[in-house]
Amino acid sequence: MIDQALMQPIPDRIFRFACHKDLPCFTKCCANLNLVLTPYDVIRLKNRLNLSSEAFLEKYTTSYIDEAYGVPVVKLTMNNDKTRRCPFVSPEGCAVYEDRPGACRLYPLGRAASKIFEGHPAGEYYFVVKESHCLGFNEERDWTVQEWIINQGMDEYNAMNDSFMNITAGRQAKTIKALNDQQLQMYYMACYSLDEFRRFIFETTFLDKFDITKDVRKRIKTDETELMAFACQWLKFSLFGEKTIPISSHHRA
User: By the 8 A CB rule, do 166 and 232 touch?
Assistant: First the structure.
């Protein structure tokens, strides 16, 4: 989580920042992190490392139930050294840069979907995370928020992340916290362990119980982003009873 003391508004949605290898602080922001990974982060990283979802999660992450939201959360495990460095950082920079997590892409900005600054109405906001060690703010490069989002490839990440946020958005906390262990395991599998979720669909009686078209079956079997979208619909159905997945006619009550 981001220390709120570091969160600053962005006047006129313009900020000054640049990061490069010649800065003395280069990669200092890649240590001692509490870096929560989104489902799309896991997909990009596990594919970059040529690992299955299960292998990536076991080797590089820890999971816990978020006290505020009541659902499983996955975070990147830092190295067990004095500075708790990110396992993917080197003196040359990020070794998985093209597939780095969304939070790393967005830095030094943060994104929130609720009111965080006095005098502003509720809605989506970007803010600057101004850490004292970061010298990038002294560089002579101005950005608008939208320019930074496009430059860092955040549009795709935001779209994929928002689809998962919408699973629980607008639901009362007591509804989410009432989920049982089996339901929480389902949430974890469908969100983070997509290889396992794919097997759940294609290697069990799942397709006998639900009316899934041949086109959808093909897409979710071969395209992980399609599988992620299907996982969102499945969780709304299986956890909260929304009619997002059609039941096969011979399985209807």
Answer: yes
Q: What is the CA radius of gyration of the chain?
A: 20
Give the bridge partners for 210, in sequence order.
247
Shared domain for 143 and 75, answered yes or no, is: yes
Q: Which of 158, 189, 213 is the C-terminal boundary of a domain?
A: 158
Residue position matching structure tokens 């990440």: 157
Verify that 138 and 223 share a domain, yes or no.
no
Q: Quick: pLDDT tens for 142-180.
A: 999 999 999 999 999 998 988 888 898 888 888 998 999
Residue 186 amino acid letter: M
Count H helices and E strands in the chain, helices first.
11, 10
User: Quick one: 20 and 141 in the same domain?
Assistant: yes
- Of 158, 179, 214, which residue is a domain's last? 158
Lowest mean pLDDT among 89-103, 114-128, 155-169: 114-128
Question: Is the peptide bond prior to 108 cis by the omega test (within 30 degrees of 0)?
Answer: yes
Question: Which run of H or of E encompasses 189?
Answer: helix 181-192
Q: How far is CA 11 from each of CA 16, 46, 126, 128, 144, rounded to the nearest angstrom?
A: 11, 37, 11, 10, 10
Rounded to a whole number, what is the distance in angstroms from the first to the last CA of the chain? Answer: 45
Q: What is the total count of domains within the chain?
A: 2
